[in-house]
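Standup notes
- DV: blocked on the single-chain target, sequence here:
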Amino acid sequence: MMKLEPDKDTITLLGVILLLYTAVRILFLFFSFYFISNHEELYNGTLANDMIGNPAAFLRHPNLIFCYQYMPFAGGTLVTSILALPFILVLGNSVFALKVLSIIISAAILSAMFFFLLKYFSLKAAALFGFLFALAPPYPVIISLILWGNHRESSLLSVLLFLTMFKYWFDSGGNGKRYLIMSGLIAGFGIYFDYIFIVTILTVLVFQLILKKDFFLGNDFMTFSLSSLAGLLPFFYSSVVFNFRNITVHDEGYMDKLPAKAMVKKFGALVFVDIPESFWIDTFNINRINVLSYLYYAFFILSFLFFLRLGLKAILKGKKPPMEFIFVIYIAVFALVYTFSKFYTGKPIFDLNLNEHPFKIYRDRFFTTLPPFIFALMALYLARIKNKKLCISTAIALLIIPVSSYSRYFSGSLLGEPFFYKGYAYESLPGKLAAVYDYKTCISLIENLPPEYHPELYRAFGYSIALKETGVNAETLQRTITEQAGKDYIYEGIGRGIMEKHKKLEEAIKIAETFGSDSSRHVIEGEIEVAPFYEGIETITRAIESFPDNSAGNIFYRAAGRGIYEFLDSSFINELKNKMKDNPQALSLILKGVGEKIDGRLNERSRNFLGKDRVPAIFHKDYDISYSGIVSTKLLLRNINNELLPFVMEGISEKFLTDAQS
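- DV (later): unblocked, structure below
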């Protein structure tokens, strides 16, 4: 077996590949920056922002850092949040800092796989992989710019585990135990990072089983297992902090349970539709089939089948399979794990159609670990083509096909947007605080966050504690927040949580009345905001009219309007004119509430922008264009009937009315 070590020329080649890789990502970053609303990525920048702004809070509350882990079951979201700290410190707290970190992580994946292929296969395979990765199809390029902190980023650990296990299998030089311990540590930490890493561990164990079955009966397996447990220490500690909520990936029922027949169909869809469509190569179609995407995919399938045949042939003869067979195992294990999991593409998440822009980005996220291994398998097959002209022409075609679709994702109007937006978001934090700390501590922590976020943070905190299985301890809560500035918002949030939990307005109002007159009004206001999602307008108006206090009715009708805009479409708003023709005063209040919700949305959107003093001057003109395009009152009015608009506009702040009136 030829083992190559990097020399000066090899490092230069890798440098050229990395420059090409970086150029493509920068191109997409500046001209295809359309998914700014990705709250997961923004949350990964929140820890760094708060550590810089309020480090004392983390010294007083050591476990606070775990509240910035977006997913309890994916420690990688916390790891990437910590890694973001120096980037935000140096580059500022715009989303651009997060994008730079994401690009660097993908560059590390490219480099690690390059050196792995160089050492155990050939320079030719390493170089071909590098170019395939640098000029990847659009979706792999785009996801290399999104700092999710789980699936894709775990690929770096997968390559490192392959590298250390190959050292143990083929190149230990008497240091096998050391590489085995390193492998175990990576394996354990990989599971903590993201559960998708189980695919990599299964791949390694299957390959080990093929190479040497008695490994599992000896001391080496014990060494690997114990070091894996050591690598899992962050998982064990976070399990205690999260009350073992990280054991479950999603609540039961998040995805449907699939019968055997449906699983066969799911596997077929994965192989023939999902993976090829996940490239997002869309140059031209025939009968709605992306021809170039399937041509690109066909070469991968050819590579997969070639090494599958070689591997099975060797195994049947009692010989060791070629080393390339580990990539075949990885792809096969991934396909099986995905097929038997409760996840699948195309199913709406929170009623979002994942086949539509921009939510399509989520549709294929389960496959984001695959590209490095797909490219590696293709490169290894290309490297085996002995005809030089055929090899070069095929490689060029495989590079041109993805590039041909790049322009479809570009827009000159998006130039500079990464600098305009804040690289942090607080929406998810209150729920995580409520899961770890008591009421008083949560409130004190929220008080130290930026004041402009306080109303929504207090509401979200109230909502979170209302959804706890133990219910809301009204007496304890009232004692805790008696003098708090945000108590009214907390009670509104509690009302939203109670209504979501019980789904019947009458039942929810009875619970609200246990809070006492001073607090119950705010709880009921929150309940009525959510009520349009569960109850008809007749039920809501009947409940509001049952209150003897007219001033309460004024507040509750507006709350209903806010909920109607949040949960229902413009056609329902337009139908209110007929449904409430006998109660014009209530109708006007509801429509004002619709305007208040629009005003809230506009404030949320405008708050996501950094000030001009923190945006490069070269982008100020585009900044203004981008701002007016996204903070658009006219867009948010969503085809509301012109006769109703004057009432709606009563709820919108003066600063946002100019756009609507024009």
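- Follow-up: The chain is about 65% helix and 0% strand.
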